[in-house]
Amino acid sequence: MTELDAVKAALKTQAVETPSWAYGNSGTRFKVFAQQGVPRDPREKLADAAKVHEFTGAAPTVALHIPWDKVDDYAALAKHAEELGLRLGTVNSNTFQDDAYKLGSVCHPDAAVRRKALDHLLECVDIMDATGSKDLKLWLADGTNYPGQDDIRARQDRLAEGLAAVYGRLGDDQRLLLEYKLFEPAFYSTDVPDWGTAYAHCLKLGEKAQVVVDTGHHAPGTNIEFIVATLLRERKLGAFDFNSRFYADDDLMAGAADPFQLFRIMYEVVRGGGFTPEIAFMLDQCHNIEAKIPAIIRSVMNVQEATAKALLVDRDALARAQAAGDVLDANAVLMDAYNTDVRPLLAEVREELGLDPDPMGAYRRSGWQEHIVATRVGGTQAGWGA
Ligand code: LRH
Ligand code: MN
Ligand code: MN
């Protein structure tokens, strides 16, 4: 096999999970802009996700958010996904949209609120049992707004206790994925603000607990690829939430704001042996002003392009330049790969998979957008941003 064939073979295995909520209406706290043809229920979200997979061949799973995707029968929803050529992926918990959670969820000072949050998290594991999902993703909106509002250490103790209870409920093949976020909605202290805190909790919990890196959840200038390299080295990287940011947690299309950063991240993934199904490569974004399905197709393509470039890095030449201390050559090897136009290569990969080489054009020509606009009235909101 030539090196190029190996790159192509790797690209054919790529799977990007799309989030159910990206198909719904969304916005900012200022305004949710309703679009035409938006799904009215989880089944219609899956129908749109199936189109993304049909035209990219690289989006076989869909993440759920509970209760945004609440249904009576989760096994039936999983079966429906299968009929559409999809599988249900990560179950995302939601302990941030209930009045009870004003002062937090599993870190709340009141034991009754902590119990309510824990019950929800345990219910998410029940749902995973029904859907066959492997991963439970926890993002906690817990924190405080004012110094002195609550005891920072006591909140960590409550967090550890809550996480341990969820961890104890996991099946052998299930994982707890802990997502950190620098700030928001709390502004003074956040209970899981960074990878170090998430890592410390996951380390204590055990092998089935791993960290989620959401690319939008860092301070400007943070070297995210360093975090990725470190977590991979410690076998504690569980998943990505890909999206783009200019300022804060903007949730723009992955690879739109800083494609070079996405390349650097994917290079560390490839370098660290992380390009495997063990790591969930998920999108976590919303499309407030752009058409949703094509935006998700574009995002999947952006992840594919960053991955192709990362796979093209001449690692032998890079290792030689690094060992020789040749700073300029080493940097040039990396930049050569980044500056390669991989679009023709990906078009070839798609053709070899029996797909249209141009997923955006194929979607446009498919008539699906016209179909959903004509048949769906009153689309659902993604769940937040109102
Ligand atoms: C929090 C977050 C988390 C949520 C999602 C909707 O900002 O990234 O992953 O579940 O947004
Ligand atoms: Mn996220
Ligand atoms: Mn986020």
UniProtKB/TrEMBL annotation:
It comes from the Bacteria. It holds the Pfam family AP_endonuc_2. Keywords: Isomerase, Manganese, Metal-binding. Gene3D superfamilies: Divalent-metal-dependent TIM barrel enzymes. Its EC number is 5.3.1.14. One of its GO terms (molecular function) is L-rhamnose isomerase activity. InterPro entries: L-rhamnose_isomerase, Rhamnose_iso-rel, Xyl_isomerase-like_sf, Xyl_isomerase-like_TIM-brl. Residues 54-249 form the Xylose isomerase-like TIM barrel domain. NCBIfam families: RhaI_grampos. This is L-rhamnose isomerase. It comes from Streptomyces doudnae.
